[in-house]
Structures are given as structure tokens and as C-alpha cells.
Amino acid sequence: MNADELKRRAAERAAEWIEDGMTVGLGTGSTAYWAIRRIAERVKEGLSIRAVASSMRSEQLAIELGIPFVSLNEIDRIDLTIDGADEVDERLHLIKGGGGALLREKVLAAASDRFVVIVDESKLVPTLGAFPLPVEIVPFAERLTLNRLCELGGDPVIRLAPGGDRYVTDNGNWIADCRFGRIVDPASLNARLNQIPAVVDNGLFIGMTSAVVASRKDGSIEVLMP
Ligand SMILES: O=C(CO)[C@H](O)[C@H](O)COP(=O)(O)O
């Protein structure tokens, strides 16, 4: 089974947890893509929900596929959000933001009664940090902010878009991908990063995960709870 098939299987399992009447948060990325596809199929079969999205890409996909869509400012709570991750550690803390949507993803996760993470088993790690940690920064303060990220040991690199220009998030910001090495205390790093004035947020999701649906190469699907 290839990586995409594993992603699809985890996504489709999680999409079965959605029930009539729910407000559903849609994640971003190649795994969340499969969840959105399956949710759209269920809507066609009669499921009655409304959705909000963590990125313009996912919003566009949801609308194209006919999922009833509302803006975040029309709702007060989300029942269930389904999203991917770049790394999941043993305590179900996450690194997210490989797809550049970390800020909106964290906003949705924080507003969700249940935040369900869908991954293939390659994302499960004992300790976070092999994947560079995305940090969303305000362009105005690039130099000062990169200096501060260096002081914290992050070795930041500004993310570039395919054409070579700086990658711009849906919020008009830039992303510094940081290599901290093994992140043994993600809660502390999260707090220190977010104290830097021009850091908007970072890709550490601490204590937000309700469940992880992980698909394994042997064809099994494991549900991990914190
Ligand atoms: O955080 C994300 C986007 O900002 C994604 O969920 C994360 O990068 C995983 O992506 P994929 O499912 O494509 O592996």
C-alpha cells in the first residue's frame, strides 16, 4: 500500500465519525484532502452538516465538492475537526504547518470539541523535531525575528514558494522553518516562541489532540487517545 493509500484510509475512517447536525472543521494537506473527499460523498448520501476550513485551499475544495460551507465568523464552536500532521509524538503532541496553514489550523483545533488527527504511520515518532518546525512570522520584523529564533537554537530558514519567491500564508505572513533538533519539552518551546512579538504562532500543537487515526502498512488502522 503506497503512502497516499495509507493517508486515504486514515482519512476515510475519521470521516465516519461525523454525524448529522455537526459543525465540522476541515484540515489542510494531502491527508485532509481525502477526508474532505469522503465528507463530500457522505453529504451527497444525505449527511447534513456545515463546515469551516483551515485554509483557502480546503475552503475551495469543500465548496467545489458541494459541502455546505460557512465562515468562521458565523459559528461559535466546532464539533469535530479532522486534520493531518507532520509529526505525532507519544503524548500526541504535534508538529503541523508543513502545508503552511498552521495558524488557521490551530484556531480551528482550539475551537473544536474534538480534534482528530489523521496520519500514516510514518508520522508517529517518539520525540518531535526531525521535521522542521514551521513558525509563522510577520514580514515587517523578519530580521529581528530570525535573530530571536536563532537565539532559541532554531536555525531558521524562510520558506520559499515553488517559483522562488517567499511563501506567503493565507494571513499574508511568512514562514520560518526551524530546526531545533529533538524537542524534549515542546510546551516550553511553544511558550518561548510565542513570546517573540512578531511570531504569530508556531506549528507545535500541545495537548490539543482528542484522537489520532493512524494507518499502518500492514493494512490495520489504530486509534490512539491521549
Ligand atoms: O499541517 C498541515 C498543513 O499546514 C498538514 O496537516 C501537515 O503538513 C500534513 O500534511 P500531509 O497530510 O500532506 O502530509
Automatic annotation (TrEMBL):
This protein is called what? Answer: Ribose-5-phosphate isomerase A
For this record, the Gene Ontology CC terms, alphabetical, are: cytosol
| Biological source species | Cohnella fermenti
Annotated substrate binding sites = 28-31, 83-86, 96-99, 123
* Residue stretches spanning the membrane: none
What pathway is this protein said to act in by its record? Carbohydrate degradation; pentose phosphate pathway; D-ribose 5-phosphate from D-ribulose 5-phosphate (non-oxidative stage): step 1/1
Origin: domain of life: Bacteria
GO biological process assignments: D-ribose metabolic process; pentose-phosphate shunt, non-oxidative branch
Family the entry assigns: Belongs to the ribose 5-phosphate isomerase family.
- Its gene is rpiA
